[in-house]
Each structure stands twice: as C-alpha cells, then as structure tokens.
C-alpha cells in the first residue's frame, strides 16, 4: 500500500510541476498555490507509513515488525514527558516505565500514527477537487479566447502592442477580438459565478481539512497547536525545564510498540 501511494504521489507531483510554456492558465496564483503546491506537498509526504527500529541481536524480520506495529498501534508514556531527553530517556515520552494493569495504564496510544500517509493522500485529493471542478466547468473557454495572433502582438511588460508587426494585420486582429468581446458581453455570468463558487470551495476545503486534522489527531490537539507552540517558543530555557514541547507531544517523532516474542519452550 505504501509503495502504491508513493508511486502515485511522485507521478502526481511530476505532472503538477511540469513546465509547459504553451499552457493557458485559467486560475490565479492563490488558486494554483492552493490546488497544486499544497496538494503536491501532501502527495509527496504520503510515503512509508512506519519504520520500526529492530532490537539488536534479535532475528526479527523488519517487515514483520513494521506490519505488527502498524496494526497494533504505537504509544508514548505521558509520565515520562517531563524527564530530560538524552539523560533520563531517549526520546520524549519513550523510555522504561512500570506497567500495573491495562485499566491503570499510563500509555497514551497514538491511533492516528500509522494512518498518516493515507490521510495525507486523502487530503491531497480534497485540495485538488476545486481545481478539477473548475477545469470541468471552464471547458477551455479561456483557451478559445486566446487568439494566437493577438497574443503574439502583446507586450506583457508594457501592456502594449509590439510595433514590429504589420499595422494592417494588427488592426484587423484587434477589431476581430473587440467585436467578439463586445458581442458576448453579459453572456458569461455562469462562467464568472462558477469561478467564484470554486474560490469559495477552496475556503470550504481548507476549513474541512482543519476540522479533519483536528479530529484525526484528537479533539482539540490541532486547534490549539499553533497557540501552544507560540507560547512555548517564547519561554526561556530555564522555564522550559521539565516541560515537553507541544511539537513533541502532539507530533511524536518516535513512539513505542510492544512486540512479544516467544521461544520454542514458550518462554
């Protein structure tokens, strides 16, 4: 599954960032940044889901360990958050702890951890939806408006016509374009409303992804993430002692997984 997502991601990114000089642009820069760059970054991150560190001197296949942790889930230990990394523990929330029973367990499971690539891929699709809808509604109308003779006579920097073209040919070309635009005035209201609708849809998709990410990580974690990071970054080094960064608490880079192995005798 991860290989398929990675292949689709690379192909999607290549197709979106391919330079085509003859392509007609039908969206503004903010629209393209929203639907192309954001979606491309999400597809690019939808790669390998989880990578377990195999214990030394253990003949455990990495693939089996990765699949086990992917299915069973990973966790951190909140009671270890306030310990010093590199001295008391290896990573924030990762270390040895006393396990009493499942009801009184101090483990905080990150059930979303292994599903991040799939979530990124889904979110990338949602960011592409407004572009795909607008492309279907637009029906190459802008492309049909772009008369090559007019385009070749326009100087984009000065917004004027080049003087090296034939004056008579230039006049006929401009007259032809002017007659067309005047004749079709007020006939493109649906076209304008469709574009505005797709722009509004961009905002809706953005709000949906914010809510989706907040529910995906845990109610309130993502909504309060920005203010918590800003508040933590303003603290002095002496004030952060014994505190865990919100970036490590909400987005742990390393988590734990219990893998039980038994020998032939059952021990």
Automatic annotation (TrEMBL):
InterPro entries to which the protein is assigned, alphabetical: Innexin (IPR000990)
Keywords attached to this entry: Cell junction, Cell membrane, Gap junction, Ion channel, Ion transport, Membrane, Transmembrane, Transmembrane helix, Transport
Compartments (UniProt record): Cell junction, Gap junction; Cell membrane
GO-annotated molecular function: gap junction channel activity
GO CC term, one of those recorded: plasma membrane
Pfam families per UniProt: Innexin
TM regions (residue ranges): 112-134, 190-212
Similarity remark: Belongs to the pannexin family.
Protein's name according to its UniProt entry: Innexin
């Amino acid at each position: 599954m991860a290989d398929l997502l990675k292949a689709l991601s690379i192909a999607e990114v290549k197709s979106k960032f391919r330079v085509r000089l003859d392509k007609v642009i039908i969206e503004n820069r903010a629209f393209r940044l929203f639907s192309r760059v954001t979606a491309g970054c999400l597809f690019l991150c939808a790669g390998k889901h989880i990578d377990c560190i195999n214990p030394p001197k253990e003949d455990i296949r990495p693939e089996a360990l990765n699949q086990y942790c992917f299915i069973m889930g990973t966790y951190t230990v909140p009671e270890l958050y306030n310990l010093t990394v590199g001295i008391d523990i290896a990573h924030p929330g990762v270390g040895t702890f006393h396990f009493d029973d499942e009801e009184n367990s101090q483990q905080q499971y990150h059930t979303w951890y292994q599903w991040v690539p799939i979530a990124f891929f889904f979110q990338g699709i949602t960011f592409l939806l407004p572009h795909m809808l607008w492309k279907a509604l637009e029906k190459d109308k802008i492309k049909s408006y772009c008369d090559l003779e007019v385009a070749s006579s326009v100087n984009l920097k000065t917004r004027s016509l080049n003087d090296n073209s034939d004056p008579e040919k230039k006049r006929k070309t401009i007259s032809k374009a002017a007659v067309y635009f005047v004749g079709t005035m007020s006939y493109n209201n649906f076209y304008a409303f469709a574009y505005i609708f797709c722009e509004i849809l961009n905002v809706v998709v953005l709000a949906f992804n914010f809510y989706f990410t907040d529910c995906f990580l845990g109610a309130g974690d993502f909504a309060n993430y920005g203010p918590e990071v800003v508040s933590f970054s303003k603290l002095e080094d002496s004030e952060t002692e014994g505190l865990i960064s919100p970036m490590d608490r909400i987005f742990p880079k390393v988590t734990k997984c219990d893998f039980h192995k038994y020998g032939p005798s059952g021990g």
